Task: structure prediction
Amino acid sequence: MELQDKRLQCVDCGTEFIFTVGEQLFFRDKRLVNEPKRCRECKAKQVSLLPPASVPASKRIDTPVVCSRCGRETTVPFIPKQGRPVLCRECFQSKRSTARFGVKRDAGLGAH
Ligand SMILES: [Zn+2]
Ligand SMILES: [Zn+2]
Result:
């Protein structure tokens, strides 16, 4: 069975393009059943339109917040939940250290 170049029409721009024997062999090799729907140009365009690879999980986010304890503007590396108090790093750490002694969170709000 001999393959021949096929003329296909691009679904995007309507231009006829050639589905070459080489490409047909490639498709067959990859067991692709669907013929290409777009001309080379539109295919290239489509690729460039694809959104960039998803943001890596390691990417830092910095959300500007106002510390609910000392009122200082700071950023946190997460998106705070609505209605939840957000503390700056210092307050967070002092809160943690006081919590260790079982002191109530609002107690001992001395000089910052
Ligand atoms: Zn096209
Ligand atoms: Zn604070």
